[in-house]
Structure formats: structure tokens, C-alpha cells
Specification:
Chain B: InterPro entries: ArsR-like_HTH, Desulfoferrodoxin_N_sf, WH-like_DNA-bd_sf, WH_DNA-bd_sf. The complex is a heterodimer. Chain A is an alpha+beta fold. Helices cover 52% and strands 13% of the residues of chain A. Chain A has a single domain, classed as Winged helix-like DNA-binding domain superfamily/Winged helix DNA-binding domain (Arc Repressor Mutant, subunit A, Orthogonal Bundle), CATH 1.10.10.10. By secondary structure, chain B is an alpha+beta fold. Classes of the chains: A alpha+beta, B alpha+beta.
């Protein structure tokens, strides 16, 4: 499993357990990843509608939960599937 | 005798280049990772990715494993094979390889990694879904609407389906070659009018593949 998948799983699990926003710093510390890498991934997740930034942290969306439920090993998210038709 | 062509083994035949890639003697087929069997009674030829021993039969009799072949065969180029069999250019395969074991990645990130236009990535994602290497799901967005998610099919399934797909393509190609052989045979039997080359290509006028412009 890649670090992105681990991060997304962590954000959902941590948010549900603690019932509070997840910060890049704590995710990086818990997963043993570089904080700038985590911040970069969370920005990409935001673009994909998988997390929403609020104050100093992030909360997972229903889209992230649906993605994890697919239980897939790798995925490409196209957040604007209608873009080419516009 | 001197060769004017720069490519060793290449000869110009009326504007078309005839390239002989295999100048050495043909390898023993029993040492290849596939097996070809022939029926000793009829014209049936079978390709298998395994050594089936005496298990391959035709008319209830064991088939003979082919160990030698007379015609030189050009070594296949993976890019050309994927393009011919599945209409999948290298760019499409690159996208497929990016997603295996990694993600979630956005279509935009894939475009940046591979230096493609985002619209190109989107087009190949659709193509990869159509040929069955990726599966597409629609996930709900909190603000309404949906996102598309493309995930690779199970690797065992990918292996199985690409081989079956390729065998279908090879079967269609073999049918064309067999039809070509029968066309020549019929021409000789019937003592046909006109030149064989004209009769031959007229027979296959509808089978000419259009170049892939994608």
C-alpha cells in the first residue's frame, strides 16, 4: 500500500476516533512521513474532494469514505469528469 | 554485392521497406516460453503458454509439438503489439502503470507527472476503462455531483484478460492469413481470370486496418 492510501485511511480513522480535524503535522508524525509531503498530498486530496480544509486541519468527505469502501490498490480521481464536455 | 541501405538487412521494394530483423538461424521453439502444437492429421495449429506434453489433443490423438519453423519472424515490439491488438498507445499504458499500487492521484497530477495534457489523460482513462484494464466508479461529492474514480483491475484478471484479448486478436489475424492461403488455393484450382495479386487484394479490400489517429 502506498503512502497516499495510508494517509487517507489515517485521516478518516483519526477523524472518526477523535472527532476533530486532522493536522498535517500529526499525520506526518503518526505515519513517519515528511510533513511537507503530507501537506502536498492533503492539498491534492482537497482538489479531488476527498478532504475539506477547515481552520488548521482537514476533515474527510463522504467521497473519501466511498473511495476507501472500494478497497482498491491504487486509484486515479477525476474530480471534473465533465470538464472536456464544457 | 553492396548494400545501399543504411539499415543492415533492409531492402527497398518499390517504396516499401522490407526489413529482415532475423538474420541468424531460427531458435528451437521448444526453448521458448510458449508451445505450438500441430495435428498430424489435419491442419490444426494450437498456441499455448504452457508445455502441455501429450495433453494437447486433436481428434482424440496427441498433437505434435512444433520445434522448428521455416519462415523468419520479426521480433514483436511491445508498443506495437499493444497498439495493434488493443488500440492502446504507450501513453495509455503509462497512465495504467502510474495507477497500479499508488494513489489516490488526481488526473491533473498524472498529467503533470507524464507531461501530458489533462484532456489526454482523461481520454486514455476512458479508453483503459473500455478495454477493461481500469474500472470506473462514480463517487458522490458533498456539494452535489460526482467524481470519477479509475482503479486497476485485479492483476490476475489483468493478466488473464490481456492474454485472452491478445489471443482473440491473434485468432482474427490467423483467420486472415488462412483466408489468404485459401484465396490462393481457389485461384489455382479455378484457373481464375486476372492476375492473382489483383484478385488477392480485392478479396481483402474490406479488411485493411485504418491507421490509429488517436
Amino acid at each position: 500500500m502506498g503512502h497516499r492510501q495510508k494517509l487517507l485511511e489515517y485521516v478518516v480513522a483519526q477523524y472518526d476516533r477523535e472527532e476533530r480535524l486532522v493536522t498535517p503535522a500529526e499525520a506526518a508524525r503518526s505515519l513517519g512521513l515528511d510533513e511537507s509531503l503530507v501537506a502536498e498530498c492533503l492539498t491534492a486530496f482537497t482538489d479531488c474532494h476527498l478532504v475539506v480544509p477547515e481552520n488548521d486541519g482537514y476533515r474527510p468527505t463522504v467521497t473519501a469514505r466511498e473511495l476507501l469502501a472500494l478497497d482498491c490498490d491504487g486509484a486515479i480521481v477525476d474530480p471534473c469528469p465533465e470538464a472536456d464536455k464544457l | 554485392m553492396t548494400e545501399d541501405n543504411n539499415t543492415p538487412g533492409a531492402h527497398d521494394h518499390g517504396g516499401e521497406q522490407f526489413v529482415n530483423h532475423q538474420s541468424q538461424s531460427n531458435p528451437n521453439l521448444t526453448e521458448r516460453p510458449y508451445s505450438i502444437y500441430r495435428c498430424t492429421d489435419c491442419q490444426n495449429i494450437v498456441l499455448s503458454m504452457q508445455d502441455c506434453g501429450d495433453g494437447m489433443t486433436c481428434h482424440g490423438e496427441p498433437m505434435e509439438r512444433v520445434s522448428e519453423y521455416a519462415m523468419d519472424v520479426n521480433p514483436p515490439d511491445l508498443r506495437q503489439v499493444l497498439l495493434d491488438a488493443f488500440g492502446l498507445p504507450k501513453s495509455g499504458l503509462d497512465i495504467c502503470l502510474c495507477v497500479i499500487g499508488e494513489g489516490p492521484l488526481s488526473a491533473n497530477e498524472i498529467a503533470e507527472r507524464l507531461d501530458y495534457e489533462e484532456s489526454t489523460v482523461r481520454r486514455y482513462l476512458k479508453k483503459l476503462d473500455e478495454i477493461g484494464l481500469l474500472t470506473r466508479s462514480q463517487l458522490n461529492r458533498e456539494d452535489g455531483g460526482f467524481v470519477n474514480v479509475y482503479q486497476p483491475v485485479d492483476l490476475d484478471q489483468m493478466r488473464r484478460e490481456t492474454l485472452i484479448g491478445f489471443y482473440v486478436w491473434a485468432g482474427e489475424a490467423a483467420s486472415l492469413i488462412e483466408q489468404a492461403n485459401l484465396t490462393k488455393e481457389d485461384y489455382l484450382k479455378e484457373g481464375g481470370d486476372g492476375r492473382l495479386d489483383e484478385v488477392f487484394w480485392e478479396e481483402f479490400a474490406d479488411h485493411r486496418a485504418e491507421p490509429d489517429t488517436k
